[in-house]
Prior knowledge:
Blueprint: E1 19-22, H1 32-46, E2 51-54, H2 68-79, H3 102-114, E3 118-121, H4 125-131, H5 156-160, E4 170-173, E5 179-184, E6 188-193, H6 194-197, E7 202-204, H7 212-222, E8 227-231, H8 235-248, E9 254-258, E10 261-263, H9 278-283, H10 288-298, E11 327-329, H11 331-335
Parallel strand pairs: 1-2, 8-9, 10-11
Antiparallel strand pairs: 3-4, 4-7, 5-6
Helix pairs in contact: 1-10, 3-7, 7-8
Amino acid sequence: MNSQMRDPVTSAFAGPAVVGRLAPSPTGALHLGNARSFLLAWLSVRSRGGRLVLRVEDLDHPKVKPGAADAAIQDLRWLGLDWDEGPDCGGPSAPYVQSERRAYYRAALDGLLSEGLAYPCVCSRRDVADAQSAPHGRDPHTLAYSGTCRGRFRDWAAAAAVLPPPRIPVWRFKTNPGLSVFDDAVLGRRSLDLAAEVGDFAFARDPDGAGYMLACVVDDAAMGVTEVLRGDDLVDATHCQIALQAALGLPRPAYAHVPLVVAEDGRRLAKRHGDTRLSTLREAGISSRRVVGLLAWWSGLAPFGAECSPEDLLDGFSLKRVPRAPAVLDGRAKSLLREAFP
């Protein structure tokens, strides 16, 4: 670990060497919402001649489905997206599957522990809720952690010993008071006081630190990623990742968080809203050009009913054209996919 905290400032999506990433999680089939975010990430990089990395984020072990990683690659290829490095084509930063990169996360965890910035915690979500005297002001589904387990256990094994199986501890990062600030290429300036509004956040539920929050930070740096484009449901997680980057002395990518695709009831896409999986649309005989056209219309890049490939959208692409409101899978959108939504 770098003993000096670094706070690199990266202008949003600027600079000559653009490196982006597509990071599917094999917990289920890709759907229209995933596809829109991946298309925009691809366009942002390819429109400036940048390099793309495909990384499989498979650390959510209980939810990982056999064959889902290969299916995601097939779906992305069907859409017309490509990449320069990945599990199917190799590259200088291999391996590109997170479950094969545990040694890197262990090294980062050891660095945090040596600086006294991480500790094991045995508190359940109920414990955290009971410790709060007032509702959390930012998100009713998010609980601010009060630091109950700070200094409580000497190591992971000691924490694990007090929990009945199959429960295991989590690793938490010690936050400090003060605003975390970054400029988002879509949402503008974002700020959050991690200590006050989130507390010591959990970054892994694994003895070696192999969890989403830490793994993303470590892998983005190792793979030279300079920009991250993803759904706006992860915007608050970005503040946590920025804190980890600073603690580990890693560079900060530029970030862009795009609105999600939602159903007419305003909720995320789910089975109750119809089958929006790319594999289902393909099996229904819907062409990839029609699907890309729908994604482009949602993103302000093409007129309603257009059929196009990702390459057709490169000329004149700008994130400024992407609407700041969620895309809605309404009756009009479904009419373009009538074979799947009769």
